[in-house]
């Protein structure tokens, strides 16, 4: 069967068609630091193209991720985050402020082989998110605690 050479429609199987809007969205994700959410990408894309709808951005992000042009990082109860870096890497996630940054953990590569050996699966991908509290939030927590201590001492003196 010969397909029309000028068939620009998206196929039912999700064929990727490059459009100006998708190119803009892809550029924003690639340029972004800190793994933005769909809402954050929408705000940035809207500065270049004020007519773009949120639904278009949202659907395009899913499409770009499905075609391996970006990575979608999903979290159980939070918005997905998008990553312009498509090669395998791991992340650290701050449970206090939501900061998400790349972390290179060499041992993660070994984990893949261990998982394969123990499960019998042919592992095609794996991704680790280390959850915790980022340096800025740790510093803020220490400060807050210090202020609380001073407050309690102040009250005791009254
Ligand atoms: Zn934080
Ligand atoms: Zn990343």
Order of helices and strands: HHHEEEEHEH
For the largest sheet, list the strands in their spatial order.
4-3-5
For this structure, the CATH topology of the largest domain is: Arc Repressor Mutant, subunit A
CATH architecture of the largest domain: Orthogonal Bundle
Sheet-strand content, in percent, reads 15-25%
Mean pLDDT: 85
Summarize the amount of helix as a percent range: 40-55%
The count of DSSP E runs of length 2 or more, i.e. the number of strands, is 5
State the major sheet.
Answer: 3 strands, mixed
Give the ligands present. zinc ion
Q: What does this molecule look like?
A:
The chain has 158 residues and is of the alpha+beta class. It has 2 domains: 86 residues, Winged helix-like DNA-binding domain superfamily/Winged helix DNA-binding domain (Arc Repressor Mutant, subunit A, Orthogonal Bundle), CATH 1.10.10.10; 72 residues, 2-Layer Sandwich (Dna Ligase, domain 1), CATH 3.30.1490. 46% of the residues lie in helices and 15% in strands. It has a 3-stranded mixed beta sheet with strand order 4-3-5, with no helix packed on it. A two-stranded antiparallel sheet has the order 1-2. Helix 1 crosses helix 2 and helix 2 crosses helix 3. The chain starts with 19 loop residues before the first helix and ends with a helix. One zinc ion binds next to helix 5.
What characteristics describe this protein?
Arc Repressor Mutant, subunit A; 158 residues; alpha+beta; flat; Dna Ligase, domain 1; binds zinc ion; two-stranded antiparallel sheet; disordered N terminus
């Amino acid at each position: 069967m010969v397909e029309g050479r000028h068939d620009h429609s998206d196929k039912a199987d999700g064929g990727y068609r490059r459009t100006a809007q998708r190119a803009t969205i892809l550029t924003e994700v690639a340029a972004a630091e800190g793994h933005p959410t769909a809402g954050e990408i929408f705000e940035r894309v809207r500065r270049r193209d004020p007519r773009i709808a949120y639904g278009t951005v949202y659907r395009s992000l899913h499409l770009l991720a499905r075609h391996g042009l970006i990575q979608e990082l999903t979290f159980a109860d939070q918005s997905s985050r998008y990553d312009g870096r498509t090669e395998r890497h791991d992340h650290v996630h701050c449970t206090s402020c939501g900061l998400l940054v790349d972390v290179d953990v060499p041992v993660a590569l070994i984990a893949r082989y261990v998982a394969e050996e123990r499960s019998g699966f042919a592992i095609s991908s794996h991704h680790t998110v280390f959850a915790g509290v980022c340096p800025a939030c740790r510093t803020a927590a220490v400060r807050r605690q210090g202020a609380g201590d001073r407050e309690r001492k102040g009250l005791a003196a009254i």
